[in-house]
Amino acid sequence: MSRDDFNIKERCYANDVFIPDVIKILEEGHTVTLKLRGISMRPFLEDNRDKALITKARNLRRGDVVLAEVAPKVYVLHRIVRIDADNVVLRGDGNLNCEHCKVSDVKGFVIGFYRKGRSRMDKTNGCKWTVYSFLWTRLLPFRRYLLAIHRRLCKLNVHYVK
What we know:
Blueprint: H1 15-27, E1 32-35, E2 51-56, E3 65-71, E4 74-84, E5 87-91, E6 99-102, E7 106-114, E8 122-123, H2 127-138, H3 140-161
Antiparallel strand pairs: 1-2, 2-7, 3-4, 3-7, 4-5, 5-6, 7-8
């Protein structure tokens, strides 16, 4: 059978059903690529467009993007804002509010993103992501306005595409 004969089907599952299986795979030492859902990491990452390459959580630091369980069976892929002993504060780049969890609730660590359908990964330790992270995290007081402008531009773009 040639490679072209494969029929690939995409399926969508609820996070509370799917993510526990992903966590098991991560704990076995494998990496997982997930298509991102939601708008909490805008403007850099978009819903149903971008993918994240995730590995088992280790050596957590402020600024890392992680997969965490913030409530029973409620999972987020957000940036670490602060670590105080065993407590972790998370915030999505497109969010103004924070979530809280324990270090043990951080299940995965993002090592890179595939953005805009590209086959080349933007590594989270690469220059591009590091500069973006440095600038975006320091714009917190202005983020509300920048995100509002971004939302309006996205709405305009959707209208022009149709």
